[in-house]
Description:
Shape: globular
Number of strands: 20
Radius of gyration: 24 Å
Bound molecules: pyridoxal-5'-phosphate
Amino acid sequence: MxxxxxxxxxxxxxxxxxxxxxxxxxxxxxxxxxxxxxxxAPEFREFIGENALSIDxxxxxxxxxxxxPRGIIREAQELAAKAFGADHTFFSVQGTxxxxxxxxxxxxxxxxxxxxxxxxxKSVMAAIVFSGAIPxxxxxxIDYNLGVAHGVSLATVRKTLxxxxxxxxxxxxxxxxxxxxxxxxxxxxxxxxxxIPVLVDEAHGAHIHFHERLPLSAMxxxxxxxxxxxxxxxxxxxxxxxxxxxxxxxxPHRVQxxxxxxxxxxxxxLLLTSLDVARKQLATRxxxxxxxxxxxxxxxxxxxxxxxGLYCFGEEIIxxxxxxxxxxxxxxxxxxxxxxxxxxxxxxxxxxEFNIEVELSDLYNILCVVSIGxxxxxxxxxxxxxxxxxxxxxxxxxxxxxHVRVHETPQLAISPRAAFYAPSESVPLREAAGRIMAEFxxxxxxxxxxxxPGEIITQENIDYxxxxxxxxxxxxxxxxxxxxxLKVVKEPPMSVPEYLxxxxxxxxxx
Length: 510
Ligand SMILES: Cc1ncc(COP(=O)(O)O)c(C=O)c1O
């Protein structure tokens, strides 16, 4: 991390400016109509407190305007850009989902190709539908020991770029939910050799920029845009996020325009000011706070790996695949398959018996996040609970066998946008072969879509879905949750061979 000016980073122009405005107590003849909480239901006012309500403002002149920042929001964004190593930082009050949509829609328009991992977050697919872009899917690497998907490897990006040198953008998830990173710098250098910008879904990496033991951040790796969830691991309020930009492959003006098109005009100052103070904290004390988080995570991992029947991966994850090039030790992915219970059951037991909530669970794992907000007490409570569960189940039940199979990405006949807006109909799953999907079907783990809107359904896809349903694996996505029927594009105007012929001549119908 580059040396920051500590004095400059100690400033919080936005938070300070908004608090000063609230302290002046001007008579508010503007919205919000609760008028500093006086018009609000008392139980909520008392619970949330007068301070919070006094800064629940709208974009009146003294507190600047996120849509056209010229005052304290602009100053706060400039300080954030320095802290995160970006040329420009844009605040988002619509989560990282909003920032991701802006990244995709600022770089891709109708018919433009975008390279994306098959297991992208739904906001990426939403942006692909809205923009009319054509996804070129890259398969992430699967870890068959853990039953989870890592990122896409450099080799996969290289192969896909060679086949699609005309792509408008490459999007990668870095780090993954489980804290695994690909060779991001390699991916950036490769994409830049084609003049193509790299967009990073950095939802799970707001902290990584601030400690040298953590993987390279998107900005450190030279990426062009990164949507970074400060609210997830950087200490700001839920729903606040940032979009970082670096270099000259993407215009900051275009990003500002698109972000503004997607953003509410009633931007929350609670969210915005929390970004300002979170940035200050990360820049001035982040390293020291992360030191403690890393120490706690190291301790937790060591102890978990001593519990018979449990496994929490560590640095041995690195190196055997280019998609696991680096890792974030603060993520505790605890594999419970040897206990003969599912991660989902462990999540439920931790909740019901120990008052512990985990980040997520799947058939084989639970994920616990250690952050700058944890202390040894919470870690010890978790360890006690895990020891109790392991003693209850290990060897008294047969271990679970990981069953994860990934199949070829189906052929895209029409763009996801065309499929989304086309008239659709519901047909029995078993009769859907040859039709064009109008919705998603996903199987967990590893959370990779089997079918996306616009793709031609094959008999192999149907057999795969039926097999997973029979095994009791969670298959999700379609409107019909029993998965007896699928939503497909109605009365295709031509047969599939005709589609394929047209696709041969004209890559994708937009
Ligand atoms: C990989 C990934 N990307 C993007 C997001 C969206 O972030 P947000 O909830 O801030 O909109 C999430 C949310 O969990 C995520 O896991």
